[in-house]
Amino acid sequence: MIKNRHARDRATLAIHCGYDPASGHGAVKPPIYPSTTYVYRSAAHAKDVHRIFFDENDPAGAGFIYARLGHPNLTMVEARLAALDGAEASACFNSGMAAITAVMHAFVRPGERVLHTRPIYGGTDNLLHNHFSNFGIVPAPLTDPLDPARLREDAAAAGGPVGLIHVETPANPTAAIADIGAIAVLAAEIGARQERRPLVSVDNTFLGPFLQSPLAEGADLCITSLTKYAGGHSDLLAGGVSGPSAEIATLRRLRLLFGSHLDPQTSWLLLRSFETLGLRTERAAENAATIAAFLRAHPKVADVTYVGFAAADPRRGPVYARQCRGAGSTFSFALKGAEADAFRMLDALRLIKLAVSLGGTETLICHSATTTHYNVPAERRIAAGITEGTMRLSVGIEHIDDLLADLGQALDAV
Crossing angle, helix 400-412 and helix 277-297, to 10 degrees? Predict the structure, then answer.
């Protein structure tokens, strides 16, 4: 018996975890299981597996019944995501917004508050302010997620019970960082004053499992738009939530009702993409560091929000050093002009693609106020640091010289 076996690195887990070739006739790569339904051995077996699945709440023990309840490729990708996030379990959905929606429906009750950092992704903002308001759920911003005293003040000002604290760090699109540990302490303090402790959910999309581990910092749930870096090729939609087994079981039950599970083909594509996530993350981050420095030194650029610059900041630096293993490759920058200058630059680009989304092999750019945060009222955008000149840049893995040349000639057009 081997004792004290060392924990495997994420780079190894991303390739091997979740699939045993013995289960796939020795195939090195997992097969795709496209079947929607699975055959019972007998009528009695059919009754037994449904009892195990529903009454004993043991999907693994039940085996596979119907693809909406679970399928082999989903089991594989959830095991791999949980391993990468350092979690007991994970639940995968058919988009990042499906994952966020499930979390909020599962763990927030009517009349409760959702404390949230700002800015947050436009879809999440819309969900909180326009959908959940129909259920008497009130969103309340945390105005300074690096200051424990200010966190307490904002929580007190929110009024009423708090059902969830939702954190984006780094934030979309400004790459602002929040202190996950301090927010976890806040959740415990709130829990001591009310009926139950609010869960802390962290949207980890901008950094992903190779650069940040929210659960290790005190978060209860780690949410990731797997469409982005995990998928990595701008050709699939998926979302994942990692955390304790009990909470993940709740999310899986809700996913069963919503019908928002991840299909076999997309699960298989994710398994493929996870294998190169570490390499792509490293290369894109190297490119981003060079581009951020170039933009910060450019006379037409007013501001660059690259996370790596936080290291030298007396407030953000300690948080960055403690909870981040790198700066990632998505950030925003703003020109000294406003929307018209930003549009001139965007229209002059020849290599970098003007499109929403992020985390693909290709470099993408968009004007946040008129795309990803179009439905967010101007006053909330401005309060969160999204100006008329703000552009979000997701740096890919192209050759750095070509990216710098394209940005340079586009800035010359302003």
Answer: 30
